[in-house]
C-alpha cells in the first residue's frame, strides 16, 4: 500500500501532538492549546493535506483551518453546540428533515481532516453518533414514506469514508425511490484526500445520474494537481455535477484577491462555486468569523470584477434552524448594536446576530 492509496492516507493520519511536532514547527500558542482543544474536538490530518501546510508559518491558510488556536477555547454567548438545530429536526437517527422537500442523512462520523470551524463538532469523530445498519433501514423506510422529499443529501463526517460497496448500496436504494428527484453528496475528500476518488468509485457514481457532489474548497492552495486529476475523473468517469461551498474565514480567504483566485481556479477545474457561507455560530468559532458587513463588501467588489460563473451566493444558515438566507447589499435594512436586520425575497424580515 502506497501514499497514493486512500486507505494508506487514512491509516497514517496524524492525530497527536508528538507526531505532529515531527513534521512542523508549532508556535507557542498552537502547542499550548493543542491538548485542551483536543479534549473538546479531535485532531486529524492526512499526510497529503499536511504536505500543503507551511511547516513554519503560523499564518498559513491551510494551517489555520486545522490547528487549534486559543480562540477555540472561548465560547461566545451567541455560539451553540448545534447552531443549525439539526438534532431538533431529526425524526430518525442520522436524518435531519428541516426543509420540506429535502433531507440530510448523516452516515459517517469520520473525516480525514477535522476542520476547527466544523458545524458538527458536537458529534463528528464520535462513533455512537453514526447510524448502524438497522438504522440505515429505518432511514430508507422514512424516505420511502415521505413523498414530499425530492432530494437526499449524504453527509457526515464524510460519506466517502464508507466502502465502495456501501456507497453503491445506499445510492441504489435511494435511486429506487420514485419520488426522489436527485441525490447529493457533501464531501471534503477531494480537498483533503483526493486519492479517494478511484476509478471504481467513479464507476459507481456513473450509475446514478443525476448525482451532485458538493466539495468544500476554502483556499486556492487546496486546488493542487492531484485535485485536478481527481476532479476530472469525477466529471468524465463518474458523470457527476460538481459544486463547491466555501466558508468565509478570517485571515484565510477574506480578501477579494483570494476569493477571485479560488473561484476562477474552481471553474477552471470544472467546479461551479455554489455557496460562500458565513461561518456558523458553533462554539469556538469566533476566531474565524468575518463581520457580515465585510462579507457583503467583498461580494459587492467581486460581482463588479468577476464572471458570473465564478460568483457564489453569499449565505448565512440562521442559528436556531431558520435555514439559509441570502446576504447582500440589496437586502440589508439596518445594522443594530448586536445584529443585522435583513429583508428576504418574499418581503419578510429576519435578524442575524454579529
From TrEMBL:
| PTM sites of type N6-(pyridoxal phosphate)lysine | 324
Keywords assigned by UniProt?
Answer: 4Fe-4S, Iron, Iron-sulfur, Isomerase, Metal-binding, Pyridoxal phosphate, S-adenosyl-L-methionine
Fetch the SUPFAM superfamilies from UniProt. Answer: Radical SAM enzymes
One example of the protein's molecular function in GO is:
isomerase activity
Q: Where is the Radical SAM core domain?
A: 97-309
Record keywords: Translocase included? no
Extract the PROSITE patterns matched here: RADICAL_SAM
| InterPro entries xref list | Aldolase_TIM, LAM_C_dom, Lys_aminomutase/Glu_NH3_mut, rSAM, rSAM_sf
Which annotated residues bind [4Fe-4S] cluster? 111, 115, 118
Q: Which cofactor does it need?
A: pyridoxal 5'-phosphate; [4Fe-4S] cluster
Tell me which NCBIfam families the record gives. Answer: KamA family radical SAM protein (TIGR00238)
Q: Which family does it belong to?
A: Belongs to the radical SAM superfamily. KamA family.
* Protein name as catalogued: KamA family radical SAM protein
Q: Which organism is it from?
A: Leptospira ilyithenensis
Amino acid at each position: 500500500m502506497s501514499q497514493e492509496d486512500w486507505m494508506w492516507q487514512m491509516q497514517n493520519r496524524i492525530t497527536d501532538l508528538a507526531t505532529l511536532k515531527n513534521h512542523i514547527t508549532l508556535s507557542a500558542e498552537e502547542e499550548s492549546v493543542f491538548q485542551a482543544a483536543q479534549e473538546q474536538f479531535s485532531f486529524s490530518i492526512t499526510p497529503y493535506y499536511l504536505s500543503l501546510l507551511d511547516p513554519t508559518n503560523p499564518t498559513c491558510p491551510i494551517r489555520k483551518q486545522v490547528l487549534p488556536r486559543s480562540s477555540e477555547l472561548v465560547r461566545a454567548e451567541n455560539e451553540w453546540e448545534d447552531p443549525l438545530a439539526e438534532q431538533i429536526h431529526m425524526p430518525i437517527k442520522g436524518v435531519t428533515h428541516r426543509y420540506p422537500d429535502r433531507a440530510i442523512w448523516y452516515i459517517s462520523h469520520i473525516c480525514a481532516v477535522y476542520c476547527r470551524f466544523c458545524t458538527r463538532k458536537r458529534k463528528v469523530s464520535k462513533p455512537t453518533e453514526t447510524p448502524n445498519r438497522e438504522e440505515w433501514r429505518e432511514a430508507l423506510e422514512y424516505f420511502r414514506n415521505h413523498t414530499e422529499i425530492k432530494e437526499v443529501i449524504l453527509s457526515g463526517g464524510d460519506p466517502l469514508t464508507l466502502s465502495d460497496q456501501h456507497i453503491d448500496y445506499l445510492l441504489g436504494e435511494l435511486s429506487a425511490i420514485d419520488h426522489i428527484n436527485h441525490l447529493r453528496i457533501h464531501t471534503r475528500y477531494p480537498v483533503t484526500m483526493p486519492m479517494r476518488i478511484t476509478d471504481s468509485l467513479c464507476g459507481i457514481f456513473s450509475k446514478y445520474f443525476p448525482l451532485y457532489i458538493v466539495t468544500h474548497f476554502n483556499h486556492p492552495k487546496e486546488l493542487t494537481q492531484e485535485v485536478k486529476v481527481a476532479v476530472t475523473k469525477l466529471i468524465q468517469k463518474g458523470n457527476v455535477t460538481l459544486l463547491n461551498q466555501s466558508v468565509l474565514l478570517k485571515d484565510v480567504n477574506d480578501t477579494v484577491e483570494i476569493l477571485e483566485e479560488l473561484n476562477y481556479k474552481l471553474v477552471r477545474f470544472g467546479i461551479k462555486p455554489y455557496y460562500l457561507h458565513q461561518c456558523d455560530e458553533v462554539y469556538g468559532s469566533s476566531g474565524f468569523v468575518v463581520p457580515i458587513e465585510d462579507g457583503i463588501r467583498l461580494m459587492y467588489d467581486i460581482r463588479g470584477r468577476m464572471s458570473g460563473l465564478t460568483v457564489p451566493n453569499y449565505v448565512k444558515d440562521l442559528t436556531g434552524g431558520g435555514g439559509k438566507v441570502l446576504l447582500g447589499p440589496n437586502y440589508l435594512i439596518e445594522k443594530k448594536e448586536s445584529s443585522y436586520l435583513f429583508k428576504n425575497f418574499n418581503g419578510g424580515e429576519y435578524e442575524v446576530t454579529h
